[in-house]
From TrEMBL, chain B:
This is ABC transporter permease. It comes from Natrialba aegyptia DSM 13077. Residues 100-310 form the ABC transmembrane type-1 domain. It comes from the Archaea. One of its GO terms (cellular component) is plasma membrane.
Amino acid sequence: MVENNKRYRNGINRRRMLQGLTAAGVIGAAGCLGSDSGGGNGYAAADTTDAESLNFIQVSDQNTSDRLALTMDSAYTITSDTQLFPLWLDVEDTGDSQVYVATLRDNLQWGGDYGQMTAEDWVYLIQEVHQGTDNWALSEAAGNWAGVTVEQTGELEFQIELERPNADWPFEPVLWGSYCLPKGLLEPYVDEQDGEGLDQDDEIQELAYTGNLGAYTFERWERGSEFTAVKNDDYYMTELDAEDFPDYVSEEEIEAWQTAPNFEEYTWHTMSEESPRMTALEQGEIDQTNVPSTRVERFEGQSDVEIMEVPYSYLTILAYNQRMNGWEELRTREVRQALSMAIDKVEITENILRGYAETAHTFQPHWSEWYDESEVTQFGEGDSYDPAGARDLLEANLSSDYGYDGDTLVGPDGEQVTLTLVYSRGTEATETTAEFMGEELSALGINIEFESVSFDQLIPNYVQNSWQGTEDEQPWTGGPNNDGPRDNSASSEDWDLMYGINFNTYPRTPAAIDAFWTERAPTNYYGYVPDEDLASMFETVRTSTDQAEREATMAEIFGILSEDQPVNFVSMSDDIIGYRSRVDGPKEEFGQSWNDRTWAFDEA
Amino acid sequence: MATYILRRVAWAVVASVIVLTLTFLLLYFTPDTQLAELQFQAAQAGDDPEAIGAAYESYHGYDQPIHVQYIEYMGNMLSLDWGWSETRSQPVTTAIAEAIPYSMMYAVPSVLISSVLGVAIGLYSATNQYTRGDYAATFFAFFGLSIPDFWFGIVLFVLFSGMLGWVPIIFDTTAATFSLENLAQFILPIVVLTLSSIASLMRYSRAEALEYVEAEFVKTAKAKGVGDWRVLTRHIFRPASVPIATILVGDLLGIILVSSYLIEVVFGIPGLGTLSFEAIMNQDTSLVMGTVLLPAFLTIIGNLAQDIAYTILDPRIEYGDS
């Protein structure tokens, strides 16, 4: 039998070798015919996730905005110097910061048969959709337009009257960056109050109505893979004269707008895996992508790739749970100060985040014009990083039944104090930072237990809280994230410290942060109760027309927050973006993409 | 046999209804994290989270009683209206229909290659037991079984794409199906998937064939002067093919469905695996349901086809019709 089996044997012979080489050759030959998408006059960018929709009424996330912005310019934008730059329209304060007038350009054309964009389109959209009954279209801007009176005052002009004066209104993301739809497209759905029908309309999903309103025209959207738009030769900006631009715009910039866009095609690729995305940037298959701080070193010394550190307005906090299911001592300001004093923020920003972040001490970046360093109290940087001082502060301010047994902080039950630090799972930097903070707090004699939770579970189980008494007893509610006074509302899962959530600090319109820092604020899930009447101070900032008073009040608020430490204001990470060096236009400044339609490839 | 087939089809329908009902109940009782995130975003913008919550529930019909939602859901399932994907802005059936061709482009070649080669090498290995060829095949099988698809995919990608530049980094959806460009972007996924599926088939075929290599009827056939090829194909492969068929449908389907998640994510292929993965990650409930139901139905149909196939492969199997 064994002898018979020899007939089936085959060794490695010349024929086998050739077969193997042929297989490898097929891969190679096929690869040689592959195209280099980033090599021509097409611009290719990549991010990790795709847009969810092209229906701007319901979705306003960054990915969707990035794609929509190619085909539609929006009402107006804000330059990196905080100047209002008119795109489709200009907006002016009539003098009292309560009534604003918007004036449309006269060369804006919808696609299809919808004709010219007029004030009627805007007023119809705002009144019937954003302010529609029961928010039938699920408009994400419904809250922005609540209580606002809009009225058409001319074919190309409409008036916006706010409930109360607000000098910052043009810089709030209400009309700024907003899009419009032709009345003719909306009407059938408004009549039927058919939100789903509107969302699923082909003209909405294929951006068929954008006409000459953007630098590019929609070409195709392969969900989960790529979004491509091609140059719009009818772009309205190219028809403008020099006098149509604001005075502060230079001749060079005017010319750039008049000849925009400079790319024949613009593609957004979706690449969820980090490694291929970085390789694509390195090899020139894409021109732009975000680079994690842990990957920046890879591009050092590469002349073809430029890494830009762009200031970002989001701040990462370590939240202290002052509600009934958090450590009760966290309600004492000095205890919170002590914990913040024991965590070295410089170590976090310089080593864990590799220098691509700045330390924070209040809810505003250092570079904001509203930031007044003289008002801010620091914790966790330089001399204010003081573990020994933190221990003294704790001993002096904890309840009498707490105390130190050697280096261990002991609670009323005679056991070491144990706090639960829950953090958002996902990035290496977040996990490392959470572990580092745990180690720092361990030096205070506190035992830290970690819980790693995905962000989508963090919100419903730890952030959202509910009133624990009867409905009759509930004095007020700030919504699902702040469902009543902290003594009687709690999240479904217990926690003491939480890390990994970033909040917008609104450096251009800082009064908007009242959504975080008053007792009844809708985002106050940590149960902060300020001693000062911050609500009144925010009201002053919102309604006053005296800029000096507004600045002084805002500085005072930031001072109080830094002193109170309702949360540990840990750091503000930069946006790290890698560009191919041939890309001419991006700058390392906040809001740098406001004029990205004028970017070009370096001819050299 | 007709009664048996009818009974099996009826059971497939019952199984489908059970799967659909369980899916509905799971979705109904699972907390809506999308709503929670929407309300959290609204709160940060200073808007009323409860108002947006109420609008969201009304918009999606979640404010209706459970039986109303269930009836509508089952009606939609029957009419193939599987809902609207919130994260892709298209009907779920369209999303699945668009994704299937991309998965087929590497799964079909992989299934064909692994089925033919896996069984062939398994038979070779069985009839050449303990020879160098058998050891080589065994090594190859264990290598394929042991090496993680995800890791192997990345290694091949880095080597052929990152270092050698032979295959494109970015998946091109505009490439013609039958073109060298498309072959270039699919060849690595085919290799990775084939390697993992060929290995188990090979080992299984070898084990099944070994049962018959020394069987009396094989020895008799050889004694009567039947040629090696005929012995292999008619006397060894034929009886071994029945148990092999069971893993062709079950294991192969499992390997392909599971591997497709990993392979498609690594190579950026917008197929069913990526679709399902993204749906789960983004909590797109309609799409999750669609991508869960599809393999469930495929499994039900696959098992049905497999049971029927037994009658063709082995006439001795009875179904109790008489």
